[in-house]
Amino acid sequence: MNNKPEMKIGIVAVSRDCFPESLSVNRRKALVEAYAAKYDASEIYECPICIVESEIHMVQALEDIKKAGCNALVVYLGNFGPEISETLLAKHFDGPKMFVAAAEESGDDLVQGRGDAYCGMLNASYNLKLRNVGAYIPEYPVGDAEDCADMIHEFLPIARAVYALSNLKIISFGPRPLNFLACNAPIKQLYNLGVEIEENSELDLFEAFNNHAGDERIPAVVKDMEAELGVGNKKPEILAKLAQYELTLLDWIDAHKGYRKYVTIAGKCWPAFQTQFGFVPCYVNSRLAAKGIPVSCEVDIYGALSEFIGTVVSNDTVTLLDINNTVPKDMFKADIEGKFNYTHKDTFMGFHCGNTASSKLSSCEMKYQMIMARTLPEEVTQGTLEGDILPGEITFYRLQSTADNKLRAYIAQGEILPVATRSFGGIGIFAIPEMGRFYRHVLIEGGFPHHGAVAFGHWGKELFEVFKYIGVPVEEIGYNQPAGVRYPTENPWK
What pLDDT is recorded for position 272? Predict the structure, then answer.
């Protein structure tokens, strides 16, 4: 299944009737040409039916972009713009929307050619607030054709996430394991975000799994797994069961997604899972994540939600990791100090049993879950995909409805270092500037759980805008503040 939306952005130009309409017409054409010259022209649609000057024009433009299949909107102020009609357009469009405004082109044309959209953007933003209409407005939302084309392209991942969330269902199986209250999931905020949730018993999942015994598709899935694992296929005896489980989840999605277009899963993985199913689901979780269907561990509902947001923003595979353990001082001195510009407190290890996709590991092997095998027979803990995570830029982030039922989030950009972890599981050595302070004054102070989503690349700018758009208060979006910028809870005399 295609679990990520394809966006088509309708560009509607507006004009106040006391300004020359030609300003908006010509500037819209120039904008569309600039976008097509630099990006994929199929991502946008130029509404040709009218320049919106009135409420009647607004209705005509709205019908046109809907007919064209647009699922995102850009309101383009080619001049000052009609503040009522343009904000009504945003109000009645069901999807993510953005406002940008045209800059003046030349000092030689500031009489009939002056559009005053710089002023008009203020009125547009004021009217959006009057009508309680959310819209994305770039950091500096006024520019020439090339500038605005870049802004619209930057809007794409934000629009993907906002649109996808309004069409998302989270499917969960079973209550959280004992002692995992940290991954609490007040569902009221999910509904506030427009997300549906279907909570199931793990017994329902077990029944569905048993009903897939002998499924004729299992050999083909096993063959695909063998090709993916290559020399890392160290547990071939478990692949048939894992294939059966993968088919169970995919069929469950098809049967249960209902009217929703996109799905993510919060899965159960212990303590009874291993003894009853006879394996751990980590490798299957990694394979679904690679297909664009993130599966969180330990029934972490907001972890699954966070993973899905990262998937559609980055248009890439993500993972979910424990913010797990410190880097030993001797290891830091031997492998990191003097080679990378980080302090010891900037580093930590991100780990999970084996849910990270093979494409994001330096090398991988199918193994057993060492922690679980300390109290269970080793053979029922097989199914982890283990290896060091690929080095490179990352964004660590999470969206959470915390214990007091408020939406909070954090975002921290950094990197995975090209340093061997000397450990087990899917694991990497992470370095985030000022991580020690961020850990204390955002993660601990904000009541965040130990699970964090990881997007590969620096996506902080886009995630910040997504969180703002969907209603997370700006003051509740934590980030790793640079040295010299004090957190509100940080002791000034430390």
Answer: 85
pLDDT score of 183 more than 90: no
Q: Please check whether residue 26 is in contact with residue 34, taking contact to mean a CB–CB distance below 8 angstroms.
A: no
High-pLDDT (> 90) share of the chain, %: 85
Same domain, 90 and 130: yes
Rounded average pLDDT over 256-283 = 92
Q: Look at strands 382-388 and 262-266 and give their pairing.
A: unpaired
Distance CA 69, CA 61 (A): 13
Q: pLDDT tens-digit profile of 237-257?
A: 999 999 999 999 999 999 999
CATH of the domain at 239: 3.40.275.10
Last residue of one domain, picked from the residues 125, 146, 162: 162
Strands 72-77 and 9-14 turn out to be parallel
Residue 113 has pLDDT above 90, yes or no: no
Q: How many helices (H) and strands (E) does the chain have?
A: 15, 18
Q: Are residues 186 and 108 part of one domain?
A: no
Q: What is the pTM of this model?
A: 0.95
Range of the domain at 111: 9-162
Place of tokens 């009647």: 56
Do the Cβ atoms of 480 and 438 come closer than 8 Å?
yes
Residue 315 in this model has a pLDDT that exceeds 90: yes
Two structure tokens written together for 115: 């559009």
β-pair type (392-401, 347-352): unpaired
SS3 state of residue 328:
coil
Q: What CA–CA distance (Å, rounded) separates 227 from 208?
A: 27
